[in-house]
Amino acid sequence: MNLHRMLLERKAAGRPVTVGLIGAGKFGTMFASQCRLTEGMHLVGVADLNPDRARAQLKLGSWPAEQYSAASIDDALKTGRTAILDNADLLVTHPAIEVIIEATGDPGAGIRFAIKAIDNGKHIVMVNVEADAVAGPILARKAKAAGVVYSLAWGDQPALIADHVDWARACGFRVVAAGKGTRYHPTYHQSTPDTVWDILDKYMKIRDRNSINPKMFNSFVDGTKSGIEMTAVCNATGLHAQAEGLSFPPATRFEHAEICKPRSAGGVLEKAGVTEVTSSVYRDGTDVPHSLVMGTYVVFESDSAYSQECFREYSMLQDSSGKYSCLYRPIHMIGLELGYSVASAALRKEPTGAAICFNSDVVATAKRDLAPGEMLDGEGGFCVWGKQTPAEASLEQGYLPLGLAHNVKLKNAIKAGQRLKWSDVAYDADSLAVKVRREMEAAFAKPNAKVA
User: Fold this and answer.
1) How many CB atoms lie within 10 A of CB 248?
2) Which of 60, 306, 321, 427 maximizes the CB count within 10 A of its CB?
3) For the whole model, what pTM was predicted?
4) What pLDDT shows up at residue 446?
């Protein structure tokens, strides 16, 4: 509880935490809007392929034009203003910048910038959870070896869930399940950027359809983002993916301890110690009241009868047996909270969640029957969605990571619902993202296991 004090000390010393932001999308803009108001933190530069968009986004985030008028990174450092760039490498390699925020959302770009930041002695805050799902374990290992911090992004749900898990374990509780809420129905797995509006219009009043990217929004709807985020949670906490991935049981925020417990105890989980995402939609299409649609949770247990009685006395959300209990956070504010990760990395040298193992993967899964010669269009597209899968099974079967299922041509026919394999696509073995992923697979495979 001392990050703010530490930031004030850096301000008083005339050495604010210096930050470079790559990507001026929604997450980056939300961070920028708060960074402008955070004492002891200086957003030195924002890099985006479209600098005009970056300027428009900062204006949208309530920045005065003068504040983002620096002519260069050096000018920004001298004047306290911010430079807008179209070349992110200038931020990553500049010696005066301490923390890089990777917020592009592109797995290949995220891996490249993360490695370059690590090689240049920068802490890296990986908003790009898509890249983390592909290669987070090896990126975190490389950062640790280099003496820098690789961190998940506070405000995004994976970091918040990892914090719930850490809290429960530090208090001596056994973690049974952890995850988040979302809006889900089994039919959503077939959702495409064209049909996603049929779903969005039911619960979001979007006046200007041109203001959002339907492909990006579709990744939240079709189950992909949940698989990506729960993969990040598993790899950061040591929790496991269930054999068939997420089941998305409907649940009110008050029912998680009853529902997210093992089947042997009357719940829906195949075992304890896994991730699960609950739905705000019942299978008949009606809305779940008091859902956790924007929140996060952890279900835990104690083998102490005394502790279980204390759960009751202190109004914890227990299951019917009293053995299991739940703590939840009803909301997350993504980029508005991201400064917490930046400060933690720079001042405590501590990540707000980072991969410690390779327990979970997210695998490209066919939305429909796919024919040889088709080009896959990746996350949120028309061809595949991302299914959470145990990493061991992914390695044994040679499954294709969702993050690498973009702009690759199919070699084989794939049935709807089938998980794709590396051997099903013509991938570029020389691409950096593929090389890093393959390096990770070899590094984290069990001894004597063959990596497909």
Assistant:
1) 24
2) 427
3) 0.95
4) 72
